[in-house]
């Protein structure tokens, strides 16, 4: 492998024009194809093999007239305190509002609250249902604005007119978040490299990789339905990882030049060492993300595979395009001064100060802050290990209150019309009205009358604690199925509502067992509950798969048992702390004003499993970048302590810079509109911060110092059976002796 990577780096250097042109051509072709052939994304969710999904499928089969996929909205009217909507002037105003709504494009049907008895018991609040003939994704912002504008006749008459439902919500957008993240990344790159040209290289490589990934993902919509959140998450990940990998290879290339290597050999060495870390880090991250398939939820499968593809592209960019671009850059990666120096002695003088600093010393011979820090940590390893664990443990405490779900209109800002409509409906009809349950009764197998059977079941359900109302059953045309609406006494995201769903399913169990009828509970609230349970049930198996694969891979790379074990336990601890911060901010509302976040009171149920996959991949990235250098120094014959210090000094700066870049990119997505994207960006920014500045900078050197030589211990029987990847630099030869390198590699295998 060592020789293959070395040859790949040199080949990309020698044929840099061809490699760059191939990448540009691929990006152009795929971008054009994606723009011409892609189809709109979808917002629908499905959970195979759950009761709620089976009920939806049954509704589509037995009630085809009611299974339209058009968007819906609610127009909510409220009279002033003490007033009633049956006043003639109020009724006329409501009629004018609904008349304007009916005239809107793509509106298929609008109900009348007075004819449908959709008026609260006190007569003050009423609502009308609006059905569109097109899905939500086919509605533009102008359609939403036109809907909101119809409120004017009602508000002029003194009524409160608010709008709820999906058609009334603005389309999620990315805004300027990614641009802010890119700007911050550019600043960090410039500070790290000290050159605008060198700082622009990782950004250029990242942009080409991201455009290629997103275009391929868009092109896939031609062949399959893709959820609207998939592209945003792939963009976030692809942008961060592409910059990450490109910078790591470029940083090693600059280091090799400072050591006196010629550019071609420096690129070959960089791809062999840093490129190997990129390859295995990318492989681990891709496996972790592709593992989302085991959860069995289509949206997670789509997100996982799309994100894994973005990581694979980022890895290929780091191993091929970056070496090619570095070939164009040459010695200018150090800035103009180094680029124009021709005399070797003068060039060595230019590099001396930077090389001295990379070793941990300033120009005056005094140790840098990084050198002082790592020596302090390894002198007091127990103290720093315990202190770090305590900090992460405290941050993890809020995670004990983690509540999963999908946000509804109540999660919108209080000033929004959707939130106001939600509050009015709760006031007029009870909290459960915003999350009704749909009970489907199927008597096709028994041949019994569906209406009579459903009426009997409805009477039983009315006696369940927490059920506020059960509507009369509505049969289908064939009379072999009926639908009832059950209104809980609690809100859609309340724990009591989940108990109501469980009690309903338990109550109709005997009916299903006897063969009298198949009864299933569905509706958005039941779907959210089933999805949260499915995710909770698969979290542990998924975690075992991800951690297990990465653990085995790290054993092969590091030739150690304790190093992978340390990395795994550290990840689990930082993951708990990340979830704790997520709960504190998005569920409890801490720091909402400071961060500009609106607390939803719940955590999006898709988030934990995605964060586990990606944050573990990121943790392995930094573990690879940092510990491979320590391993390399130890393989050269340094003592364990010397290996820790030298490896830390050679890697800590780039790991810190990479972490700052990724934090900037992820934090920029907090400005997005979509709740999933917003919370995802926050969680990953926190995960990277904790991983880089607590785990890697503190816990890793402290624990490695505690392990001493045992850190690199591997049983002999396992040593003999594991493949040798051989990625250390200790015996990499310059180009003219490559044949000897190949012969040596053949002998070792």
From TrEMBL:
Q: Which UniProt keywords apply?
A: Cell membrane, Membrane, Transmembrane, Transmembrane helix
Query: What is one term from the GO cellular component aspect held by the record?
Result: plasma membrane
Q: How does it sit in the membrane?
A: Multi-pass membrane protein
**Organism's domain of life?**
Bacteria
Q: Domain SSD spans what residues?
A: 204-328, 541-706
Indicate where this protein resides in the cell.
Answer: Cell membrane
Membrane-crossing segments per the record: 20-37, 179-212, 232-253, 274-300, 306-329, 381-400, 539-562, 569-590, 602-622, 654-674, 680-707
| Pfam families per UniProt | MMPL
Checking PANTHER family in the record gives: MEMBRANE PROTEIN MJ1562-RELATED (PTHR33406), MEMBRANE PROTEIN SCO6666-RELATED (PTHR33406:SF11)
Protein family: Belongs to the resistance-nodulation-cell division (RND) (TC 2.A.6) family. MmpL subfamily.
- Protein name stated in the entry: Membrane protein YdfJ
The species this protein belongs to is Streptomyces chartreusis NRRL 3882
């Amino acid at each position: 492998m060592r020789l293959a990577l070395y040859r790949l780096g040199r080949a990309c250097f020698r044929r840099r024009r061809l490699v760059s042109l191939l990448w540009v051509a691929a990006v152009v072709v795929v971008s054009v194809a994606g723009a011409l052939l892609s189809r709109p994304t979808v917002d629908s969710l499905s959970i195979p093999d759950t009761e709620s999904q089976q009920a939806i499928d049954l509704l589509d089969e037995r009630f085809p007239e009611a299974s339209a996929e058009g968007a819906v909205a609610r127009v909510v009217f409220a009279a002033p305190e003490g007033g009633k909507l049956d006043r003639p002037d109020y009724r006329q105003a409501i009629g004018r509002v609904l008349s304007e709504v009916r005239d809107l494009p793509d509106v298929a049907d609008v109900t009348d609250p007075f004819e449908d008895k959709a008026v609260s018991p006190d007569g003050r609040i009423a609502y009308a249902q609006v059905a569109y003939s097109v899905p939500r994704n086919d509605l533009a912002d102008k359609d939403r604005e036109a809907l909101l504008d119809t409120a004017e006749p009602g508000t002029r008459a003194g009524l409160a007119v608010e709008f709820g439902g999906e058609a009334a919500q603005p389309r999620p957008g990315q805004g300027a978040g990614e641009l802010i993240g890119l700007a911050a990344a550019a600043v960090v790159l410039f500070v790290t490299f000290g050159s605008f040209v060198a700082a622009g290289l990782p950004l250029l490589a990242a942009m080409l990789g991201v455009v290629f990934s997103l275009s391929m993902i868009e092109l896939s919509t031609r062949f399959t339905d893709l959820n609207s959140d998939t592209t945003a998450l792939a963009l976030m990940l692809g942008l961060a990882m592409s910059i990450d990998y490109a910078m790591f290879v470029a940083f090693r290339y600059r280091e090799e030049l400072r050591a006196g290597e010629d550019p071609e050999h420096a690129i070959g060495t960089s791809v062999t060492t840093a490129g190997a870390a990129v390859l295995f880090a990318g492989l681990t991250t891709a496996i972790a993300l592709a593992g989302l398939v085991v959860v069995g939820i289509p949206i997670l499968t789509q997100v996982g595979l799309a994100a894994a593809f973005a990581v694979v592209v980022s890895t290929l960019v780091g191993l091929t395009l970056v070496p090619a671009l570095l070939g164009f850059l040459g010695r200018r990666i150090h800035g103009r001064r180094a680029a124009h120096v021709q005399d070797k002695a003068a060039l060595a003088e230019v590099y001396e100060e930077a090389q001295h600093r990379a070793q941990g010393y300033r120009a005056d011979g005094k140790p840098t802050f990084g050198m002082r820090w790592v020596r302090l940590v390894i002198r007091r390893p127990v103290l720093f290990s315990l202190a770090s664990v305590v900090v992460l443990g405290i941050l993890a405490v809020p995670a004990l209150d983690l509540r999963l779900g999908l946000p509804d209109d109540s999660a919108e800002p209080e000033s929004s019309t959707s939130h106001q409509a939600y509050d009015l409906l709760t006031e007029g009809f009870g909290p459960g009205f915003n999350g009704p349950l749909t009970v489907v009764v199927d008597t096709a197998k028994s041949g019994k009358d569906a209406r009579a059977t459903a009426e009997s079941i409805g009477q039983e359900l009315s006696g369940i604690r927490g059920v506020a109302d059960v509507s009369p059953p509505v049969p289908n045309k064939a009379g072999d199925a009926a639908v009832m609406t059950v209104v809980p006494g609690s809100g859609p995201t309340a724990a009591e509502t989940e108990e109501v769903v469980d009690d309903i399913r338990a109550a109709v169990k005997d009916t299903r067992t006897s063969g009298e009828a198949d009864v299933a509970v569905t509706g958005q609230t039941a779907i959210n509950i089933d999805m949260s349970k499915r995710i909770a049930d698969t979290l542990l198996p998924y975690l075992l798969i991800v951690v297990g694969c990465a653990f085995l891979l790290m054993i092969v790379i590091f030739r150690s048992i304790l190093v992978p074990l340390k990395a795994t336990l550290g990840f689990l601890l930082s993951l708990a702390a990340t979830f704790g911060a997520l709960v504190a901010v998005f569920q409890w509302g801490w720091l909402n004003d400071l961060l500009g976040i609106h607390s939803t009171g719940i955590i999006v149920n898709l988030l934990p499993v995605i964060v586990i996959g990606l944050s573990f991949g990121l943790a392995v990235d930094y573990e690879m970048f940092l510990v491979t250098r320590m391993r390399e120094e130890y393989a050269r014959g340094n003592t364990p302590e010397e290996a820790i210090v030298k490896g830390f000094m050679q890697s800590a700066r780039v790991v810190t810079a990479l972490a700052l870049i990724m934090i900037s990119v992820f934090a920029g997505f907090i400005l997005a509109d979509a709740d999933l994207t917003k919370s995802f960006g926050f969680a990953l920014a926190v995960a990277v911060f904790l991983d880089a500045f607590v785990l890697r900078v503190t816990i890793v050197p402290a624990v490695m110092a505690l392990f001493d030589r045992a850190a690199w211990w591997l049983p002999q029987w396992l040593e003999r059976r594991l493949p040798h990847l051989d990625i250390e630099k200790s015996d990499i030869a310059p180009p003219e002796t490559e044949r000897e390198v190949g012969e040596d590699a053949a002998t070792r295998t």
